[in-house]
Design goal:
nine-stranded mixed beta sheet, ATP-binding, alpha+beta, eight-stranded mixed beta sheet
Length: 1029
């Protein structure tokens, strides 16, 4: 099987176009292209859209490069004068003209309007107060809404239409109408229409059930798509800072931007520090563009790579270039998953076999019919009844193709993934790419952040070293203790806290104080407020000259300010050992600056280590007074005075230790990759069970110096990497993947994007994560909880095993249905299962079977077995054992009934053949009903675990049985059945039921090698196979 499926193999992430085309070309037998390839990217359409997008980017790039070059030239001409006669009133009610200022990079008009203040005045908004909430609807009517034109969703009737594009069903519809025509001519009304009408009603049932299932899937994907597009941003409205959806933005909004944000609309720079944006998504131009007062235009869809700023929104939605791009991007479609492709291969192989059997069945029936006519010397005379018989043979052969070509096999993957994604969304995991959920089932390693993922991210300062002594900040009940700091020490400490921060302290309409910023900075700001600091007062009296926001590569931030007395001072805050290395002095208890001797430096280093061993996150605050002339953009590199060492508590999340244990038991290694101090990282890692005996904790600086051979040796043992940079994380992921690991990675910052892109499955944090990280991620963890990642792994395994269950069930039905009809046709000259009956069987094993088995929720046992390797065969030996065992039993029973059923059942009279064929059909269906229950677990004997709580499975089972009763007892005229007495009903059920103990016996036959793997923490993987009862 693996040899046959070699063309149906694609990577889970970033498959090449050649690989996508290769498997499409290998699919040679498809009943309905519209349905089979609905969830597959349209490569031709994608190519057209990408060419159009490239043209737009080229136009935008040419415009911006040309305008920028002209702008630099004009700025170089001292005598150049900008137009000052621009009429502001022309822009207040003309959204196109206003949008063109940014889109055309129109500095002439910008300066003619007196800059951003003049534009704000033209559109009636205050830069300090923002838009008034009462004006939102008016602004949306005037300037438009911040939404993009999307392709309308398909109606239910379109899904009906897609289902009717099945070639075999079209042929059967033609056969049905021909049958009705011939029947009316030979048997008259109404007897002549029953056979054809039965086929039509069966087709109607198949089409309706298929369309309903597909339509519900589409609604699930639509809901997921809405969740993917939920992006929020911070704005100033009604004098207050608020968090709103980007789709609620209006022209005139004051938007706050920080590292990792996506610019949500076209706008103009108001104020900010070190703002760098990446415009490659819009212009295709690599490199970062610096934005300031001289180059103030910000474009929707670009990404903030560094710095922070406020901007005035001037154009939204389809008035932006990004809007035009998004309209096309929405039509590209998503790449198919490896499992979808693999099952397309399986369906192709089975379809070819089914086609062969269908042709052979038709030939055998036809040849036998012709030979019998020849033996009766009737070869020269053909009647309409003969034509009807030939038509029945053809219809039976076509229906065998319907049954044999498992069209629903690849679609079952989509159904299972859609179901899993919907459930995961309820569990706070938003799957952005279909393949991620599937791949996570095979993950062997999770490289996770510490802060916010393993910990709560609810940080609070609990200890501080200042003025030469360590102080507890809070008592045992959490109340703030008196700091007892001298005024001079308190002054410089509060200046450092309130000035050296990218966060803000704001008050809402009710006067309630809120802190907008990262949890770390929020904790420090809260400490400043707790000891009596006034954020607004200090900010108002000290002018900020320049700010360098925190960057995970530098592990520090800095700000340069002018004090009230005119003194220029630089503050620095960041990783404790890094900032300590920049310091030459410290502040003593009286606030005086004293030299930092080696003895004192070692003492402070011991304090930092002590804090870290208590699992506290440590940061240092320092400052330096700059004498003489100074360029605000070049802060001093050394010579700082240490103010304080801050110890921040970030408690472990509830349930993390259990989640880590679950991963280890499932054969998934958990590695912590953090920027924190190594002692802090080790303390947390031990607390949650990641760092175990024999495990290795390493710093990023050491990791970088290792050779490839050394990395090969230590990489499997690395459990903690501390003080790591984003590059270290990327290199670790790349190395682990090179060792055939399936690596999942968590990330939240802009610089985590390369690692997320490189990984097999990238997880971005929904709360702490930036938009740049989320865009590169495959899954967004909306609650930032590590336990949620484990749920994704569990559901990933459930998807894989559910599809295996469905394939096992479908192959069994295929083998039995094909063999019983073919062998019977060869021996008796007739097929016991008619076209209508086979269509019903197809519905049971295809759409309803997928619904029942592909949507089973995961059980805890899934996380007690090793991950499935990518090289493992999808149809395992255990599955073949179950398939062949059940097929042999069912075929033996049905062949005996077909060839010796009448004497065994004591059937006599004219109706004996009809009763026998009905009984065979009924028995066959009940064999499948009980085999579907058997298929709930491939290798465990207890198949009833969780069955009655799975309402979808129970609903399908009950519906199948009820409809079978209706078909046999009440629809005999259309389905070629006759009512059965209660003894035959009971016998059909018993024969089907016997398949269950047979399945239990089969599961005791060992066919797979039992492999017991030992984990680095002493956990043992439970063996996989029939001995797992």
């Amino acid at each position: 099987m693996k040899e046959y499926l070699k063309d149906f193999d694609i990577p889970a992430k970033h498959p090449s176009e050649a690989a996508l085309k290769k498997w499409r070309g290998a699919v040679s037998l498809v009943r309905s292209h519209r349905r089979r390839f609905r969830h597959v990217a349209d490569l031709e359409k994608r190519s057209i859209h990408q060419n159009r997008i490239a043209e737009i980017k080229k136009e935008v790039h040419a415009t911006f490069v040309g305008v920028r070059a002209m702008l630099y030239f004009m700025d170089a001409l001292a005598h150049h004068q900008y137009h000052s006669d621009v009429n502001a009133a022309e822009f207040s009610k003309n959204p196109d003209k206003l949008a063109s200022v940014v889109r055309r990079y129109d500095m002439d008009t910008y300066r003619g309007l007196q800059g951003v203040e003049g534009i704000a005045k033209a559109i009636s908004v205050s830069i300090d107060e923002g838009v008034k909430s009462s004006d939102l609807s008016i602004r949306q009517e005037t300037y438009g809404v911040n939404k993009y034109t999307e392709k309308p969703s398909k109606s239910f009737l379109m899904f009906i239409w897609d289902a009717l594009h099945d070639l075999t069903l079209v042929i059967l519809i033609v056969c049905a109408f021909v049958s009705i025509g011939v029947g009316l001519a030979t048997e008259g009304w109404p007897d002549g229409i029953y056979d054809g009408l039965g086929i039509l009603l069966s087709i109607l049932l198949v089409v309706t059930v298929t369309a309903v299932s597909d339509y519900k899937q589409s609604l699930q994907f639509k809901d997921l798509d809405k969740e993917k597009k939920k992006i929020s941003c911070h704005v100033t409205r009604d004098k207050c800072r608020k968090k709103v959806s980007i789709y609620d933005l209006v022209v005139g909004d004051i938007v706050h931007l920080s590292i990792g944000d996506q610019v949500p609309a076209d706008g103009i720079f108001i104020s900010g520090y070190s703002l760098l944006v990446d415009e490659s998504s819009l212009t295709g131009e690599s490199g970062h563009i610096e934005i300031d007062e001289s180059k103030p235009f910000l474009l929707a869809g670009t990404k903030v790579q560094d710095g922070s700023a406020k901007m005035l929104v001037t154009a939204v939605g389809m008035k932006t270039e990004w809007g035009r791009l998004m309209e096309m991007l929405s039509e590209e479609g998503e790449d198919e998953t490896p499992l979808q492709v693999k099952l397309n291969g399986v369906a192709t192989i089975i379809g070819k076999i089914g086609l062969l059997f269908a042709v052979l069945t038709f030939l055998v029936l036809t040849v036998r019919f012709v030979v019998e006519k020849a033996m009766r010397n009737e070869l020269s005379s053909w009647s309409s009844s003969d034509a009807l018989s030939m038509l029945d043979y053809f219809a039976t052969a076509v229906t065998i193709i319907v049954v044999a070509v498992p069209e629903g096999l690849p679609l079952a993957v989509t159904l299972s993934l859609a179901f899993a994604m919907k459930k995961l969304m309820n569990d706070k995991a938003l799957v952005r790419r279909l393949s991620a959920c599937e791949t996570m089932g095979s993950s062997t390693c999770i490289c996770t952040d510490k802060t916010g993922t393993l910990t709560t991210n609810h940080m609070v300062v609990v200890k501080i070293w200042v003025s030469g002594e360590t102080k507890d900040v809070r008592d045992s009940e959490g109340r703030v203790l008196s700091s007892n700091l001298s005024k001079s020490v308190s002054t410089v400490l509060l200046q450092g806290i309130f000035e050296c921060t990218g966060s803000e302290v704001v008050k809402d309409e009710n006067g309630k104080t809120s802190i907008f910023g990262t949890p770390t900075e929020s904790a420090i700001l809260q400490y400043g407020l707790d000891i009596g600091g006034d954020f607004d007062a200090i900010r108002n009296e000290i002018k900020i000259l320049h700010m360098e926001p925190f960057n995970s590569a530098k592990k520090q931030m800095s700000v340069i300010v002018t004090l009230p007395n005119g003194q220029i001072r630089a503050f620095c805050k960041g990783a404790s050992e890094i900032v300590l290395g920049l310091c030459y002095n410290i502040i003593d208890g009286s606030g005086e600056t004293v030299y930092l001797s080696e003895q004192k430096r070692k003492m402070i280093a011991d304090v930092i280590e002590e804090f870290a061993k208590d699992a506290l996150r440590t940061l240092c605050l320092a400052y330096i007074d700059v004498q003489g002339g100074f360029n605000a953009r070049n802060r001093p590199e050394r010579g700082y005075t240490l103010i304080a060492v801050v110890g921040i508590k970030d408690p472990l999340r509830p349930g993390v230790k259990e989640a880590v244990e679950t991963c280890l038991a499932a054969g998934i290694t958990v590695r912590m990759v953090t920027g924190d101090n190594i002692n802090t990282a080790k303390a947390i890692a031990k607390e949650c069970g990641i760092l175990t005996e024999g495990g290795l904790a390493i710093e990023g600086s050491d990791f970088r110096t290792k050779t490839t051979d050394e990395l090969n040796e230590i990489a499997p043992r690395i459990q903690v990497m501390a003080r790591s940079s984003p590059t270290d994380k990327h290199d670790l992921v790349k190395h682990l993947r090179g060792m055939s690991e399936v690596v999942a990675v968590t990330g939240d910052g802009t610089n985590d994007a390369p690692a997320l892109h490189e990984s097999d499955i990238g997880f971005a944090m929904g709360i702490a994560g930036t938009e740049v990280a989320k865009e590169q991620a495959d899954v967004i963890v909306m609650d930032d909880d590590f336990a949620t990642i484990v749920k994704v792994a569990k559901w990933g395994r459930a998807v894989y095993i559910n599809i295996q269950k469905f394939v096992q069930f479908q192959l069994t039905v295929n083998i039995v249905a094909l063999m019983i009809n073919f062998v019977s046709a060869c021996i008796t000259g007739s097929a016991p299962l008619t076209a209508v009956q086979l269509l019903w069987v197809n519905l049971i094993m295809d759409t309803l079977g997928a619904l029942a088995l592909a949507t089973e929720p995961p059980n805890d046992g899934l996380m007690q077995r090793p991950p499935v390797k990518r090289t493992d065969s999808f149809i395992t030996k255990t599955m073949w054992r179950n398939i062949l065992g059940q097929s042999i039993y069912q075929m033996a029973v049905l062949f005996v009934l077909n060839f010796a059923g009448k004497p065994i059942l004591n059937l006599e009279g004219e109706n004996a053949t009809a009763i026998l064929n009905t009984f065979i059909f009924n028995t066959f269906v009940f064999c499948q009903v009980f085999n579907e229950i058997n298929s709930r677990d491939i290798d465990k004997i207890n198949i009833f675990h969780g069955m009655f709580s799975s309402w979808i499975f129970m609903g399908v089972m009950i519906s199948t049985v009820v409809f079978q009763v209706i078909i046999v007892e009440f629809l005999g005229t259309f389905a070629s059945t006759v009512p059965l007495d209660w003894q035959l009903w009971l016998l059909s059920i018993v024969i089907g039921l016997v398949g269950m103990p047979i399945a239990a016996v089969l599961k005791c036959i060992p066919v797979e090698k039992t492999v017991v793997q030992e984990q680095h923490d002493g956990y043992e993987i439970l063996p996989d196979g029939p001995d797992r009862i």
